[in-house]
Specification:
Blueprint: E1 2-10, E2 13-22, E3 28-32, H1 39-47, E4 54-59, E5 62-65, E6 78-81, H2 93-98, H3 106-119, H4 135-147, E7 153-157, H5 165-181, E8 185-190, H6 193-199, E9 202-207, E10 210-215, H7 217-222, H8 227-233, E11 237-244, E12 247-250, E13 253-255, E14 257-261, E15 269-274, E16 279-283, E17 289-296, E18 301-306, E19 312-317, E20 328-333, E21 339-343
Parallel strand pairs: 3-8, 3-9, 6-7, 7-8, 14-21
Antiparallel strand pairs: 1-2, 1-4, 4-5, 9-10, 11-12, 11-15, 12-13, 15-21, 16-20, 17-18, 17-20, 18-19
Helix pairs in contact: 4-5
């Protein structure tokens, strides 16, 4: 599948704007982003539920969507698993799964049905109705129904959001195994970073309808293209500063840096990426910073530090600490390792977003 310049407007607002990517057989691509960034809109365009306002979508080398063309969803040879699973409540498991086999010759249906039931580990549950199944079993029925007709692409729209934490982790692994064993190209839409990074070969970070960066999980984590991408790929804060003589001068000291994305010009303002373990927090009656909150999390304590400017950093303490809210402190770099610096001036608020 290939998306080229894919664009969709909701009124005057671009829900999806100039999106480009290719997907090969057996590859899992995750689209990750905040609510309202355009993830579901992109999925609906690929499925053929909505028309394009610009660009093209090719499936198996054939044009499926353009401004003047929109191949019907049932002619695209793709399957979709919805957040709510969309099972027919009045049908048994067998009837639900067999619904996707209507176009297959009768002589092949029973064999294919038995095959996918075994694949999703539901053999013996053919006569049950959806309300008699657990959430994980319902999800496997939805996946079986989708896989049964042998689609070339599967679209997953927040498929694990209705499950509790333990079941979500279990199903994540099971679904990935099923998809890879069938060599099916997959687009997974999610707002869960762990979900996206654990399952996908590549991850696309979406913001305001556009793909800010698309790459392997490792590359996204190590070389984010912007502070927005960095926030989505790891737990971090940003400290404002200015480049001077090869270091970044900040309100809590001069810090070594490496370029996060694009060259850092001499004397330029930057945002320095700070992770929770980058500083040691030292109690100091004359310190310029103040502990605002303290949160105990079992093996660690998270401190929210308010600096002189009012900006805040999250710092992690891995040993028992007698630091309390209101204490004045000094922040000391935990190592000499450079911190990634990004050019300042871009609105990187996680809350910014449009579309759906």
């Amino acid at each position: 599948m290939r998306c080229s310049g894919v664009t969709r407007y909701h009124g005057a607002v671009a829900a999806v704007e100039d999106v480009d990517f290719e997907l090969v057989a057996g590859e899992i691509l995750s689209i990750l982003g905040p609510s309202g960034c355009g993830k579901t809109s992109l999925l609906r365009l690929i499925a053929g539920f909505d028309n394009l306002d610009g660009g093209q979508i090719f499936i198996s080398g054939k044009l499926a969507s353009s401004k003047s063309t929109n191949l019907a969803p049932d002619r695209r040879n793709l399957g979709m698993v919805f957040q709510e699973y969309a099972l027919f409540p009045h049908m048994t498991v067998k009837q639900n799964v067999s619904f996707g086999l209507k176009s297959m010759p009768k002589s092949e249906r029973e064999g294919r049905f038995d095959e996918v039931m075994d694949l999703v580990r539901l053999t013996g549950m053919e006569a049950r109705y959806p309300h008699e199944l657990s959430g994980g079993q319902q999800q496997r029925v939805a996946l079986a129904r989708t896989i049964a007709p042998r689609p070339v692409i599967i679209l997953l729209d927040e498929p694990f959001s209705n499950l509790d934490t333990d079941m979500r982790l279990e199903m994540r692994g099971e679904v990935e195994k099923i998809l890879r064993s069938n060599d099916i190209a997959t687009v997974l839409v999610t707002h869960d970073r762990d979900e996206a990074f654990s399952m996908a070969d590549r991850v696309g970070i979406m913001r305001d309808g556009r793909l800010e960066q698309i790459d392997t999980p490792d590359n996204l984590y190590s070389t984010p293209a912007s502070t927005f991408v960095a926030r989505f790929c790891r737990t971090c804060d940003f400290l404002k500063g200015r480049e001077m003589n090869g270091v970044i001068v900040t309100e809590i000291g001069d810090l070594p840096f490496s370029s996060g994305a694009g060259a850092i010009e001499k004397g330029s303002e930057v945002s320095l990426m700070v992770q929770p373990d980058d500083f040691r927090v030292i109690k100091d009656p004359n310190g310029a910073s103040v502990i605002e909150t303290r949160e105990f999390r079992g093996g660690e304590t998270m401190l929210l530090i308010r600096m002189p400017s009012g900006a805040k950093l999250n710092c992690r303490q891995l040993i028992p600490s007698n630091l309390e809210p209101g204490d004045r402190v000094t922040l000391i770099p935990a190592s000499d390792s450079p911190m990634k610096a990004f050019r300042a001036g871009v609105d990187d608020s996680l809350e910014a977003g449009r579309g759906k």
